[in-house]
Amino acid sequence: MAKLENDLDIYYSVGNANTQRQENELVAIMK
Fold first, then answer.
1. How far apart are CA 30 and CA 17, in angstroms?
2. Per-residue confidence at 27, pLDDT binned at 50, 70, 90?
3. Cβ neighbours of residue 11 under 8 Å, at least 6 residues apart?
4. How far are the Cα atoms of 30, 31 from residue 8, in angstroms, in the given order?
5. Would you put residue 23 in left (φ > 0), alpha (ψ -120 to 50) or beta?
6. Would the CA dihedral through 2, 8, 26, 28 be positive or negative?
7. CA-to-CA distance for 14 and 23, rounded, in angstroms?
8. What is the radius of gyration, based on Cα positions, of the chain?
9. Alpha-carbon distance 25 to 20, whole Å?
10. What is the pTM for the complete model shown?
11. pLDDT tens-digit profile of 6-24?
12. Which domain holds residue 15?
């Protein structure tokens, strides 16, 4: 799980709005 979270952090740091939206959806699913 830690690696997945790290990957999401990398995608977020890119600053792509669409990627950020997908990350938020993934986080909501994983909770």
1. 20
2. confident
3. 19, 20, 22, 23
4. 13, 15
5. alpha
6. positive
7. 12
8. 9
9. 9
10. 0.31
11. 887 777 776 665 666 777 7
12. 1-31
